[in-house]
Amino acid sequence: MSKDKPWGGRFTQPTDKFVEEFTASIRFDKRLYHQDIRGSIAHARMLGKQGIIPQSDAETIVHGLQDILNQIETGKFDFSVSLEDIHMNIEARLSAKIGEAGKRLHTGRSRNDQVALDIRLYLRDELVEISAYLDLLIDSLLYQAEKNLGVIMPGYTHLQTAQPILFSHHMLAYVEMFKRDKGRMEDCLKRVNVLPLGAGALAGTTFPIDREYVAELLDFPEVTRNSLDSVSDRDFALEFLAAASILMVHLSRFSEELILWSTSEFKFIELSDAFCTGSSIMPQKKNPDVPELVRGKSGRVFGNLMALLTVMKSLPLAYNKDMQEDKEPLFDTIDTIKGSLKIFADMVREMRVNAENMRTAAAKGFSTATDVADYLVRKGMPFRDAHEVVGKAVRYCIEKDKDLPELTIAEWKGFSERIEEDIFAAITLDASVNARRATGGTALERVKEEIERDKAGK
């Protein structure tokens, strides 16, 4: 019967069985048990300290909650759909266990501010763990960058050969992306790490609670300043989902490159067998399933962001049942990015680089054409004129089936008398790479500095 539920005093009919199952959240919010109990312990201690409930009741509640935590963690706790959510499951068990004292726990709070607290506690813990996983991936990228110093590969724009770069420089590009991802997670944590408990259902409470004391017990540096906002917004969760989506964009782009590089056409890298699968019909196949799956999971995370944005976009203040839909997208995103980061960190570290194939590819496609133009500029020719000269030289090479380094000095002079014998030294792959010495460039000395800078955590 509805009247047997903690909120059922005004009801005279039982809740429809399907409605009960449809509206219950215990199936997924039970993962908040640790945060729910931690928050309730802090709330009980505050109630006792403030004399809102007897101190002896507060101590009994704390001991009862600690025992329930042990029951859940040892698999001895049966969750009930009829009790709807993690809050009521724990509270009902507490009251059954310790009697009337358990019924005093909910004094001065609502499930609205309670769930807001639980989600913030949960996400706060996960953000710290996600940052640690990002560190592992960054370490793997730095390992490959340092291990393969001096390896030259083609750099691309429009997926066409552009200019030669160091493979290490390419790895450091992703280091920069994932450092920014980590920064976004850490910045998001600032807005997650605010205590909402004490807002009540929407208007606060008439009891003389001490929110700052609860914040101290739960390691929150500050408390929310408006009770309506405290229970009715999930922008901190949206911010996390947005940051997670950007992170998945970076992982997806990296996945695409690893997939391309491991093809027989590229042969730039080989992924460890531990991260690949075979074909049920083609015995020669070695499929890069991990990066393919991570690439696919990006859409899952983007969808979670759109789902919560859609849930929140038209909700009037304060709490609405729609907001129960915040948890599954959040939980799924956390699980997805943690799994993706962990497997990527391991996979990248074990990846084998084919330096010879990369260098051979870098020598094709007129990749040093810009270096010829820069050479002519240093000889006094305006860049736009130099660009045209080199364009004609490239067209000539295409017609003659040659590459720029294969031209004779006589052929070069046919395009410009400014060109001398020193042109050949200026357009080698190594010269091209090492000439780009400005901060952020691909020159070996710059790349070495960036590796050391990143290793030092600057």
Structure, explained:
The protein has 458 residues and is mostly helical. It has three domains: 106 residues, Fumarase/aspartase (N-terminal domain) (Fumarase C, Chain B, domain 1, Orthogonal Bundle); 228 residues, Fumarase C, Chain A, domain 2 (Up-down Bundle); 90 residues, Ribonucleotide Reductase Protein R1, domain 1, CATH 1.10.40.30. Helix content is 61%, strand content 5%. The protein has a two-stranded antiparallel sheet with strand order 1-2. The protein has a two-stranded parallel sheet with strand order 3-4. Helix 9 links the parallel strand 3 and strand 4. The longest helix is centred in the N-terminal third of the chain and has 37 residues. The two termini are 61 Å apart. The model has no long low-confidence stretch (mean pLDDT 93).
Name of the CATH homologous superfamily of the largest domain: Fumarase/aspartase (Central domain)
Distance between the termini: 61 Å
Sheet with the most strands: spatial strand order: 1-2
Strand tally is 6
CATH class designation of the largest domain:
Mainly Alpha
Which spans have pLDDT < 50 for at least 5 consecutive residues? none
Let me know the largest β-sheet.
2 strands, antiparallel
Mean pLDDT: 93
Gyration radius (Cα, Å) is 31 Å
Total number of helices:
20
Question: In which range does the helix fraction lie?
Answer: 55-70%
Coarse morphology: elongated
Provide the β-strand percentage band.
Answer: under 5%
- Overall SS class: mainly alpha
Whole-number count of domains: 3
* CATH structural architecture of the largest domain: Up-down Bundle
In N-to-C order, the SSE pattern is HHHHHHHEEHEHEHHEHHEHHHHHHH
